[in-house]
Records
---
Amino acid sequence: MSAQYFTGDQEFFTGIGAIRFEGPRSDNPLAFKFYDPAKKIAGKTMKEHLRFAIAYWHSFCADGADPFGRASHDFPWNHANPMTAAHLKAQAAFEFFTKIGAPYYCFHDADVAPEGDNVDEYQKNYWEIARIFRTLQDKTGVKLLWNTANLFSHPRYMNGAATNPDFNVVARAALQIQTCLDVNVFLGGEGYTFWGGREGYMSLWNTDMKREAAHMGTFLRMARDYGRRIGFSGAYYIEPKPMEPSKHQYDYDAATSIGFIKEQGLEKDFRLNIENNHATLAGHTFAHELQVASDAGLLGSVDANQGDAQNGWDTDEFPCDVYQTVEAMMVILRSGGFTTGGLNFDAKRRRNSTDMEDLFIAHILGFDTFALGLTLADRIISDGVVDDLLAKRYSSFDSGSGADFEKGKLTLEQLAGIGKTAPQTKTSGKQEYIQSLVNQYLFG
């Protein structure tokens, strides 16, 4: 059945206009309280710093269903014809992007068009919606931050994609990646993401881990080379996650992923897309994962959400914790800010947030939380008090024998000799003082 075509004049979010900045005293739930896109901070506007993106999958596909209950969200773009629904959903999405004021969006191939019954239908459907996206991008000015292939939902990928023990599945995954990169270039995407949802194992009894990791490296190099040949000049991203759905995934956390990137010779082209909730599942903080990536020079982009420490799964909540966003934005600012990356809201409304306006309110919460993080992080960095305390803690390495040690100029014998006569000093970390200072910045 062919799709019904629409003019794009239909309004899906009726009664909701463009979301404006009204300031912290506003009682309007459909207004920004802290995100002022035109406000200048450290030489750039908030909009330029934060580079917000909307996740197509959670905002327009996640219907509130969970393992214990069916869908609770009703979408006005639903239709019995899957391609008609895809057309409607695309128009609804761009209406939302423009009303919320997001400059970017992100998607999986499976989010935007039905796969169909064979490869030809997959590509035909995908390209049909891609051409609609191109028209809507030109009309609205909204851009593609990155796209990706869903290589984890279909049963063929139950044992992984690039790491699958069946070569035929690896080849089928390559077709999806090739198509997604073609679409990316067509839409002017600024990055491309790999999330290895099932690139891992459930049991070592039936897994050749060394061979699978090598296959994944080969696969990523092939994808990198193809993208460069067709004109993709942006960054490739790997998104770390320790498990779920696999018991153990090969991109466990930032440090593991960086080791893999360097082992496979991908560091010139690949960066990390760090997700807060995935950091929680790995037993780390959001700031830790960002700092590890930044220290390696491989911080690329961010999936902006938060998890629940009491839940052992990926809850993908909209960020509301200002302490976390202040820490995050301090790392991002100190690393030079985003280039091809940004803050993609990989977050979904709660199952019981069923009003259409709740999609706006949830994103307003996320925008405002990161705007506060940006504002306060810049203030802390500009004041320099916290940085001065940090520098003082390591000052013994700034001159003399300490500086020689850092430069690799001492032998172990020389270092041990210094230790014979060195005074046994204790340098306070001033942790509680710094935490009180942060509270002053946040609430003073």
---
Amino acid sequence: MKQFTRICWLLLGVVFIFSGLVKLNDPIGTALKLEEYFEVFSRDFGSFFTIFLPHTRTLSIFLSSLEVVLGVAVLLRWMLRQVLWVLLGLLVFFGFLTFYSAAFNKVTDCGCFGDFIKLTPWTSFAKDMVLLGLWAVVFFNQRYLRRVFARGTVGVMYITFASAVAIGIGVRALGHLPYFDFLPYKVGNDIGQLMKPREQARYQYVMERNGETKIFADYPTDSTWKYKSMEVLNPETSRPVITDFAVFDAEGQDHTQEVLSGNKLLLIVQNVNVTDRDRFREINELLTATAKSRKQIQPLIITSSSPQEFDAFRHDVNLAGPYYFADATVLKSMIRSNPGLVLLQNGVVKAKFHYHDIPALSKLEEEL
């Protein structure tokens, strides 16, 4: 039991650190997931939860950093009993979220490990129950974990350092871009190719005759067999990775293929009401220079705001150039920055830039 307890202790600490770091890699993605939960709860339990919506980014960094710090505290066995009680509170909270999502099909991905590992609601709930089991083993067998690796002032220093590092990682990712991009629009990906299935769908057919059920690889020509059901054998590879990328103008004409052809610098303005307006002087200068590039880079603007809102906005910030419209979720997946810049070459993502890191034209030309 002693060895088993130590294995559970190690797993509990490591999983919490890993989970927190994955979320801190992309705090905006975690904030979007929190928004989704709060919107669901505000509809189901009352408007109280709407008060959290403006603070999701702060909560994202706080909760993710807390996971890391608690994981470090568990591994150091620093104030272990008190830390375990806090962990229990988190596990019960997360367990409720995942169970509610699974039972009522409210949020299809809990975001437990960010976009690095996608979990279905029931898998997420099962994961929380496993963690709760690890917690129980550790909590009720603390006599096997009496040695503390950091006591007193040294322990406080370690926890303070872990807190500073965790918060620093999240704040930097918030002010720039994720360190690691796990989304379909990451640098190097070909958007056009990801909009196509990797292979043709393969099916199997469940047929029935005289009470006998049989599975066929091809639909039987024998009409005595009656159709019962059909199953796709390769659902993941027969479905495109990107299914919702589409770009339209104000009249509804499709410009998707135009965007995926040649060298394009996309200025993504997700929502004009919350975009950072202070950087548009530099952005305008870059777009003007890009239009004259020897690499024939065409600047385009894509937004998810309404035509009326965007028209007023572009006059306010003196933003010139052709502009199109796309789904808000797509633009949030393309880049975690509002505004943000995406450089494409025939649909291949060559570079992405946060509005805090607006590049020079020479940098764009180097990437092509």
